[in-house]
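To assess whether the prediction recovers the assembly geometry, we first specified each molecular entity separately, as shown.
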Amino acid sequence: MAQQRKLWEADLDEDLQDVDLNLAIGTYGQNGLYDDAQSRVDEATLLALQQQMAQQAAFAQIPDVVKRFIAHFHQAVLENNLAEITVAYESGWNRLTEKFYAKTEWPEAEVIAPLVNDDQIFLILYRELYYRHVYSRLTPDIDDRFHSYENSCELFNYLLSKSHSDGPVPLELPEQWLWDIIDEFIYQFQSFCVWRSKVKSKTDEEIAMLAEGSQVWSSYSVLNVLYSLIQKSKINEHLVALQEGKSPEEIAEIVGEYGTRPLYKLLGYFSIIGLLRVHSLLGDFTLALKVMENVELNQKSPFTRVTACHVTTYYYVGFCYIMLRRYPDAIRTFVSILNFILRMRQYHTRSYQYDQINKTADRMYALFAICNALSPTRVDDNISNIVKERYGEQFAKMSRGEEGIPAFEELFLYACPKFITANPPPYEDPEALQGYIDEPPVEPAQRHLQLFLAEVRAQAPVPTLRSFLKLYTSLDASKLANFLDADEEDMVQQLMVMKQASRSISRVDNEKGLLGGQWISTSDLDFVIKEVRLLVPRGGCSCLRTLTDRRHLLQNMVHIAESTVGRRYAGWFIRNTEHAQRVLDTLRNSPLPIPPKSTEAGKAPAADASAAPPAQGPGRTGGKQVAWGSTKAA
Amino acid sequence: MATTAAKWVAPPTRPPLIETLVSGVDRYNPSNVGILEDYLYHQIRSQEYDCLANLAILKLYQFNPDLYNPDVVINILIKALTSAPFPDFSLCISLLDERPASATSTAAAANPDEPDPLPQLLPVLTQLHGLLQQCRFPRFWALYRSAAVEPLRDNYTVECVGFEDAVRDVAVRAVKAAFTSISRERLGSYLDLSGTELNAYIEKLGWTIDASTGVVSVPPNPDNQIESTVVQENIQLPQLTKIIAHAAQTSLPVVPAV
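The predicted structure of the complete assembly is given in tokenized form:
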């Protein structure tokens, strides 16, 4: 990466000053022509002229390095030069943002248009970045929100337009950017919905605009984009063909001219993940998992190279499983991705998305704690140790039933997606709007929280029962009722609840689709009730007994069985053998110490030697630390 | 039981037309709501249940508030009620965006003779669902038969063929998993049946009553057969392939000791 960055800077210095910039300046030089004609121009032209002058002034204020960057960026996009685009996108843009635009907008697209020969496609891409910057660093106003929507529409229309007689557009963009386009599109939708629902703080002008623009960021329009990309790219057919083991040629035939292009293929795939997210935000957890039907969750898929996408996918899938009360599936999902993140940690600290990934990971640890409290199972050591560290206190409370409800609430609200409502407040109807202000509806996150807590409350007696049953192999239910100061009938009902809580639908084998699964036992503690009528001594008295008397002779024997797991050694040994192998590899691959030579030895080898150790040095020590660090933890 | 999830996702009774709607993009087309609503009423009449199709109706209502039909929503919730302990009921409620009081009042103003029955019935349905979720079957029946639930009974559940038996199925599922034998009285209180009706029901289930003791024995099934086990570690070759392959690739040639 360091090397690439250097390349880019070198390019910047060499290529740019003379090529595009001159062109751009040339265009601008012509503006002077209008000065002579000023007396004859009408109002409209004058206005246009003023605007142009303002733009010119704005243009003049752009630092040269930014101008060069934009021109270079444009050139890279024109040439579909993925390497250069990536460097500009991941490094150049962010560095210039830090330097010049940490607290202000980038120059508007209209202002920089001359730099890029008014290339509409590039300007759309530029605006995509421009608005993303506004959303992430500044506070978008209503115009930004409306315009970013329009710009997204323009971008997708361009990609999906049927008017391209020559098929797919010949554009290539880096994977990461394609993911960010979809990710940002949904983020802005969600942000708009949240902002829209806050009626009180709106000005009259905003209310008027919202009343008129009810189609802006509508759920239908967002879904429409995602489904169109999915259909255009035939990504579902593609995924099915991959699973069927079809050859690349066969797949190319199936997916057609759009689906074979990486741009469409990836946008299609990311749109599936986008749907998963949108449906989750809208509270449709079943549909969210259903649209993922053809996606296989594993780390070998060719679509997992964008880490942010990978992490998002697992977060939402795991969350949906929680809402479907499939805790074992949720746990498995979280363990898998959290381990992945732990492994990737050493490589990803440099990514500008590292913070975001870490935040999502932390929320998943919280969700994991919730699942594990509701469905206690033996789980991955690495992950549960971290959970104990971060959420130990809440976890202890959640494992105690009713009194843990506030802890469930706290973690759920912290870790749940930012839910939205599908429809805007009635901005077009002042009377209804007033009603909305007087009696605001419950916030979506609160609604989902209450539904979830109802489930938790139903299970509340389970932890206590569990702790008692663990002590016995068989026990009379009335005795248990005595312990817990409860009625025997209540006790039996709670036992049935406990039984249900220890069963779940779960994906066992590789069932097709994320919704498939089988009914399994999730608990190591199991029990069964055997209700028997005690034999009464034969004799006259038995026939005299009334019904109530007879009831007393019924006995509910609870038989308990526990499955235990023998000590596990293999995982530990496998992990440590792998660590040892890695350490040994690094040692072997390190260059032998170079004995000091005369400086005449030539520049090239010297440069090599000086380049190699910094590249490998940190990697080696890093590897060592991880290896021993986790050994201790295990 | 193995096919529970598969059946839930795609019940064998689902017609092809509905399958196309549920699995395709046509599910978003408001003009298809009628087809799905008809299918719901078919489910109500013929003791079928298709959660995903019903969720598709609620999805259309979510996106198109104009389509909202409280009777349909209530019927969907009644159907979802009896799928406990599965979370269908909550999944349906999740899709009911909180309807602001104003929307309801404008609807009521437009049609003052027929106020929206949902705000009245939703708490009742939620309460009933809570009782089923907590296996409080006798309390469920008491509430269900009470005067407070009369509007729900008289206007809705009476139309839903086999509703009470569907509730009994919930109880039977819970009992089957937790008991190997259960007294006839207790079972009766869960099923809200007694006398010959209860006997007939038990017989229909294929369970047997011991005439002398009045204890019903529940046939063995995976959930009521328990045994203590010790799970031993079982290492599969694939777990070791990485290590072996690596060792094979990198092992140094053996140099004979001199």
